Fold:
Amino acid sequence: MKEDNSLYPLKFQPILKEKIWGGTKLKKLFNKQTDSDKIGESWELSGFKGDESVVSNGFLAGNNLTELIEIYMGDLVGDKIFEEFGLTFPLLFKLIDANDDLSIQVHPDDETAALRHNSLGKTEMWYVIDAEPDGELIVGFKNDCSREEYLKALEEERLSDLLKKVPVRKGDVIFIPAGLVHAIKKGVLVAEIQESSDLTYRIYDYKRTDEHGKERELHTELALDVINFSATKNPKVAYEPKVNAVTPLVSCDYFTTNLLLFNRTIIRNYSSLDSFVVYMCLEGNFIIECENHKILVEKGETVLIPASLDEVSLIPNGEVKLLEVFIQ
Structure:
């Protein structure tokens, strides 16, 4: 029998990151393998230098994402994307468990990031997987604010008074363009989809200290130039989830994200799309069937569908919830 060396849906080994604010939900809910009780992030799919995801299934197991792009180029990521980004995988996918408040922070846009750090900027979105009853996020300012007001509040330890706190529950979606001040608060679990960048300007960190008694570095000056000081109106993305249909969530220059809720087989045809597709499975499990491949996907797994695959069947075992992400 002829060996099939064509591309197929790829699963990856999660890259688990200990954080000062991390917890145990990622191992409890999503079976992430770790002895640590401080896992804040699982980098599900990353081409970020030094943190490249490694394939865990099929004949390509053991190869990392950058090596695959080098070999398969546009067949893996899409011709247009390969032309623009080369060997850089343009997006980063994470699961984040805030067992304590994250620092209040902001990310630079592409232009500033390129100039200062030779990096992509960071526009991102959050899908709230779960939240404790009092779970909230910080998203921008309550009212329009001047640089002077902001600096004074920072100096007087009352920045919190200026910021917009948004109560959240399971299923809420927040879009965070570069420049928007934000933070995940204690008790919130999110899926994060972002540009492939690890640039964070930390504005305030509650005077927390690390194991050596040192406070983490703040980036007050760097942040000042990139902050959007306008009031945040309605930070939540409005959407009506439909079963056995595609529900659009976010569409921006960097990524398009849809919600798929299904309890019967659905067929997704990507023949007109010049992009890879990523599935983040948040609830249930299902089989991806395409060409000569059948791949089981469990809750908490992330899968890369290569751009060369035009059509996939998603066969659920009960109810399934997943995020579908690509670049248009």
In short: The mean pLDDT is 96.
